[in-house]
């Protein structure tokens, strides 16, 4: 920037006016874009998808050093707890071995009962694995960017899982990348049920670590430690995907859920197309 | 006419040389480009589970820094576009960060005489006020947008971390600024 050598008063007044009007115009435009986004138009969605597609290659490059640094720290941490971890794992292995025997037995029994009933099996799910290249937490929004998009078969509304359980849903899908809305985001609403009591509820995110259970039919039956899984209502997710456990029930009616999936530790997620077209319409131009 | 024996036959002293053009290009692109790079780095996965919720608002630091030290180096239009990129990547309602950046720039511009030649501590203190104001604005705007009050704990920590991160970022940006805008 060259400082203006000796601007005439009229010229500098004109410049100040232009400057001010540019601010007013752009602030107005930003506000208009926000309102347009509230109306949930296709235009805004396409804009987001274009931006994340453009940023995806850069984010892919940037994610690699971050992963390496994190890997070094993780290694150091693991070295210090190796012995205890080993003991815990072999104990867990024993326990899981027993569960495996039970599961095999139940599977065989299920098979037999289904063949008796001529049960129509669920449609097989189509899975896409994708790398996480951006992780944006905080109080404004909770989402991930993954390197898989429409050309890989990713569509808005598909479920995103990790090894531990449900991560969230696809919110915007570009050509080669997509944004995942996490369960903790303020926009997230997932129909769930408590595994044992079969009480149905909606899991609502609030940009905090623990989403809340709302709209319960029978509040009295909720206890800390209850497992929460997807209910399959509204045909967004299939029933039975693990979500978390009830962590706290307070007198004012707040029921916090501790999620199985911890944000910030995800490297790779699975995007699953269960073939369900529920209440989330795919506006992204199928 | 250029006299014979000059290094280049077509040399015209009134036209900028290639280096001057490159210099001009760097001055135009560096403030916005650097902010964009910082923004991308700030969303890269840190793999630190606690940290991800209190990520500092790095782009705000950059926008404020350029507004205070070199008014006009990062224009309103660039700030608007940077805000759109941030919102698209993070999933915040599109336009909210643009509005926050524009307000930051306009606030600094209106107090420009105050910032002139002030020591670093004063600009840091002013950043404290602006960052707190912007965080409050974004928090309230977002609550109004969703019709639901967002939890403010993470917001407070993220703001404090942003303010604490200002000195190292300002130092880094001042190095770059020296490199690009050398003669002044």
UniProtKB/TrEMBL annotation, chain B:
List GO terms (cellular component aspect).
plasma membrane
Where is it localised? Answer: Cell membrane
Q: Name one GO biological process term.
A: regulation of cell shape
| Keyword flag Transcription | no
TM ranges? 24-43, 50-68, 88-108, 120-137, 149-173
Q: Per UniProt, which keywords does this protein have? A: Cell membrane, Cell shape, Membrane, Transmembrane, Transmembrane helix
Q: Name one Pfam family in it.
A: MreD
**Amino-acid biosynthesis as a keyword?**
no
Membrane protein topology class: Multi-pass membrane protein
Q: Which domain of life is it from?
A: Bacteria
Q: Which family does it belong to?
A: Belongs to the MreD family.
State what protein this is by name.
Rod shape-determining protein MreD
